[in-house]
Amino acid sequence: MRLARLMKVFITRRIPPEGRAALAQATDCEVEQWDSDEPIPSKELERHVVGAHGLLCLLSDRVDKGILDAAGANLKVISTLSVGVDHLALDEIKKRGIRVGYTPDVLTDATAELAVSLLLTTCRRLPEAMEEVKNGGWTSWKPLWMCGYGLTQSTVGIVGLGRIGQAIAQRLKPFGVQRFLYTGRQPKPQEAAELQAEFVPIAQLAAESDFVVVACSLTAATKGLCNRDFFQKMKKTAVFVNISRGDVVNQDDLYQALASGQIAAAGLDVTTPEPLPTNHPLLTLKNCVILPHIGSATYRTRNTMSLLAANNLLAGLRGEPMPSELKL
């Protein structure tokens, strides 16, 4: 009897152990992995994906028409170890009938925790304060030295009240936030009710918020959404935080707003590009805190993401319902 041919799976990076173990145990798959913690070069991805039935990728891997052409007709499933899918050429993927798995929900809590951490770090000027301890700037207790902004009785505006936006608001509420505003494609009365959040136009959110937290998806409509006009509407005492995608923000406009004192401070977990060049103007500013895209970076979350990505891939290859499929 002729043995069934194994399905070829290519993984674009070293992934956390739970996901890797699930794929290693799949007796119907032949698994190949780019054995590095660094991104696979696009030419190498083109070469390794040839003939693959399944592709497990990361948000830093651009899966465009060229990659899909290189893979060929065998490719049935793309599973991304991310909740964002802006790195995937979805129109082309849909045209070819390829199924897509992604990892929503499982990173919500970790990302919301990081957003709150980043907001507090930025508004209370913690990196500046730590540097003053190291460089001898701390001489004595002074009434107005290193003062920042607090959450008590503040207005927080959230751009995108999805899972992560809601989780951020829920964590901020006990800090004594007086009012939540949100904006998006449409009102979400059921989700907003618990927070008593008010749906407003984006211009009103910018103008009235003491803290602005961006948690929306990157789409054609949100690309460059936070630009010069947006920052000019914000209060001079306002703090801006972005944990969504770098391209939602016009970084040149943000630099000008921070350098000129148009807004008080900004905290970013995402940038364009990633990594941000070490000579980027934003890195010269004391009132800008930048993290290396670590929103979901807890051991538990990353392991859970990798297992979900692996299970999505295997289910898709076997023609079964995926635990988390992006409906195209």
UniProtKB/TrEMBL annotation:
Cross-referenced Pfam families: 2-Hacid_dh, 2-Hacid_dh_C
Keyword hit for Oxidoreductase: yes
UniProt superkingdom: Eukaryota
GO biological process entries: glyoxylate metabolic process
Keywords in alphabetical order: Oxidoreductase
Cellular component terms per the entry's GO annotation: catalytic complex; cytosol
Domain D-isomer specific 2-hydroxyacid dehydrogenase NAD-binding: 117-295
InterPro entries: D-isomer_2-hydroxyacid_DH (IPR050223), D-isomer_2_OHA_DH_cat_dom (IPR006139), D-isomer_DH_CS (IPR029753), D-isomer_DH_NAD-bd (IPR006140), NAD(P)-bd_dom_sf (IPR036291)
Gene3D superfamilies reported for this sequence: NAD(P)-binding Rossmann-like Domain
One term of GO molecular function: protein homodimerization activity
Domain D-isomer specific 2-hydroxyacid dehydrogenase catalytic: 9-326
Family membership noted in the UniProt record: Belongs to the D-isomer specific 2-hydroxyacid dehydrogenase family.
UniProt-recorded name of the protein: Glyoxylate reductase/hydroxypyruvate reductase
Organism, scientific name: Urocitellus parryii (Arctic ground squirrel)
Gene name in the database record: GRHPR
